[in-house]
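From the shared-data thread, chain only:
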Amino acid sequence: MSENYYQREYMKNLFAMYLSWDNRLKNLAPTNYGNEYYFEIFKNIPPTLLVHASDGAKNIPRDNNWREGAKQLLDKMESLENFHRVNVEGLHDVHYTHPEKVAPHVIKFLENKVNSKL
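Structure, as tokens:
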């Protein structure tokens, strides 16, 4: 078999890949309680890193009350010692598509000294 044959066969098997998921997962669970309830739950969380992608909120409900409530909760959570939020430029899957933008933040987060009960 010639090299051209193998090259043609190889090219026939190439296809574009993209990230996909079950569309049912795009429907967020309703929040049945106020922000104070969720803040009380999160007050004692283990060290948490939230990577916020600049263009990552396209599938969040358009309900301004929901958005405003989520923003208020995140702003309040930033006062917690174990909660760290970083902003990176990109879409929702920036950790897949541009890991070099996220990696420095993850490394810094992992290098933090944490008092553990273990």
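Helices lie at 3-12, 35-42, 64-77, 94-97, 99-111.
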